[in-house]
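Handout, page 2. Input:
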Amino acid sequence: MSQARSAVIIGSGLIGCEAAASLASRGLDVAVPSMEELPQTGRLGRAAAERIAGWLADADIRLHGDLKVTGIDDGRIVRTENGDFEADLILTAAGVEPRTELAEQAGLAVEDGRIVVDERMATAAPGVFAAGDVALAYNPAGLAGCGWSTGARPCGWARLPVPMPPELPTVGAGCRDSGPRSATEP
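Output:
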């Protein structure tokens, strides 16, 4: 990767956006083909998705929404239904489909295909927790968060290398304070 000058990140989820921002901050030319029109519309709503798309654009990341990836050739070419992307580095961050059947059978609340948890990642059942892509967490600010930001690295997407406006609360469940508003802020 140290010699890479360009990258294609497949997917505009939390991990894809953060990886794109990180690589762009290191000087790589980054393109993000995504099936979503805008990043995170389904999880965070259109207003937040537009803001994230703006942050990516401000970081000189080229977002290509409504685009289906059809293949990868020679480890350098990402094929889409609407043209190809060539890059030194390709990262697939296309996400997963959470499996909640066991949780539903156990009587746990499931909403939008995810297990409902509170800000401590606890379900309504005593001693039962869920985290990661399978969890739909509500933080004390009343915002829902999903995926990586609710699990191993709380508030992950809030680490984009562009300042977050103070009026926008971070969306990581389990975050007692929102931490830095950008990657460069202490």
